[in-house]
Amino acid sequence: MLRLVNDEDPLSPYVSHPHRDLLNKTEIPDFENELDVSDSIYDVAVRVSQIEEEIETRLAQYAHEIDSAVFDFFDLSEDLRREILTEISLRTNESPQLNPSFEVEDILEPKNLETKVKDLILHLALKAILTTDDGIAPTEAQQENYESIEELVIDQFERIWVDYADERLSEGDSYLGNQQSADVPYPNLQKWLKEDLFEYHLDRFENSPILWRLTSQRLTSDGDAEGFGCFVDYRQFGQSTFDRIQSNYLEERKSVLSDLRSSANRRRNDESLSSTERAEAKEEYDRYENQRRQVDAFEEQLLELTQPQEREWSQEGQELAADLANDIELLRERLNDRMNAFEELAEMSSEEWLADTFTDTFTDYVLEEKEEWFTALDCGIEAAEEYAKSADSSVEPHLYDYLNYCEDNIGTTSYSRNGFLFLHYYFGDEEFRTLVEEGQPREGMDKQETLLARLAAGIDRDAEIGERIKERCNKLQSKIEITWDEGCSSDWEGRALDEVMTGGYNPVKKHGVAVNIRPLAVQQIVPDIVEDDVLL
């Protein structure tokens, strides 16, 4: 809709999105457009519906041409083509015809007008908040420096429609409800942005919102009136977000509510007023009192979220992880020496000799798997070193899986190729062991025999270290307790939440919306729809 009147740019997070790149490479038909900012939203929606109809008709025509090309390629008779199309109709919701007509329907009224208007306002709300300095928009106007969500959306209307902004706002407001108010210019828009925008955003973004709704409404038993609410750009959400909300918005909001409460208190105790006026003043006082208590409770929840937390991690677990890291480093050094010897042996020896000494595929397999083995050991070292740190240090959740990765690539000493310990089956051969004396290659041997001795030296000890590493990996994993286990869909999510909360709430964007918003849901500072739809 906006492209027809303003050539609107996409939302900033999606400027370089892969779908945007695909769109730029796609040859989109040119549709005649005679609209501008003077045209009503209704007229724009009609034109959009006409364009949509033309696109759908063209797609159907292209699909039919593809089907016909396939039929022609296989030289199918007309009767068989009809039978195939009948089967498609029976098995799907499609009703393809053998010779359909592709006339564009004459659209005189907009299709899904309400959805189009809501999509328009959602886009403008997203665009407004995504471009603010702090990524925060309160639901209530409270001071000049920070505009409310309604004011930001109105600014967007004025940016696009300029002199026609009031007309477009009034029209958009009429599609969102039928409330009228002498005090509020756009009451339906105000109500929709405050009460329905977030739920609609969830629906359109498949329960992965980039715009988060924070609210104090659930923090008191009487939550009819919201003490404080705001929208936050998830992309800009970080450890400083709560501080900005506290300093830039909550203090001002508390001051406003205190003034309103004091004014209502004076009026409810003013005996010169009628009983009706005093009763109304009492209701106002109770409402402002409740809202103020909400804000205080909201502030406490933010403070609790920012407090550093420790993982449930014992000193015994830290020491076990440190010992594991030392073992893996030692085994890696041993494997590195053995691989250097094997590569040198493979380079100087003929394929026939290698095949006779080991097997036909052994050499190629070892050289191909070498990088994977070292990567697994490096991952194991990284994980063990992180778990060796104190409980107040965060640990990335995937490091837990690195322990499995390391263990799997160590394998066993059996013949099967399930990890590098299987090298023991070959290098531990008795013929090679005789080339070793007191752990070192015997003196007086040729180069080839010396390399074989290096491959055999300490092979039993390395197998013992490998088995000890696997045992310690399993033991370490069993000791890793998850602080955030209630309601989590998996152990990984629990470990991810530990990372988010260790050191105080700090979203880790790569873990996704559900993980990062769960702590806010636990503190009940987001709408309850988050628990119903986002945290499923």
Concise account of the structure shown:
The protein has 536 residues and is mainly α.
Structure notes:
- With 536 residues, the protein is mainly alpha-helical.
- The chain contains 22 helices and five strands.
- Helix 12 runs antiparallel to helix 14 (362-387) and helix 12 packs antiparallel against helix 19.
Features of the shown structure:
5 strands, single chain, two-stranded antiparallel ribbon, 3 domains, 22 helices, mainly alpha, about 525 residues, 3-stranded antiparallel β-sheet, about 60% helix
Per DSSP, what share of the residues sits in E-state strands of 2 or more residues?
under 5%
Q: How large, in whole angstroms, is the Cα Rg?
A: 34 Å
Number of strands: 5
* Number of domain units: 3
Mean pLDDT: 93
Q: Residue ranges: pLDDT <50 for 5 or more in a row?
A: none
SSE layout:
Layout: H1 2-5, H2 18-25, H3 41-73, H4 78-91, H5 113-130, E1 136-138, H6 149-161, H7 165-176, H8 187-195, H9 197-204, E2 211-215, E3 229-233, H10 241-268, H11 275-306, H12 315-348, H13 351-357, H14 362-387, H15 398-410, H16 423-427, H17 430-433, E4 436-437, E5 440-441, H18 447-456, H19 459-479, H20 491-501, H21 513-522, H22 529-534
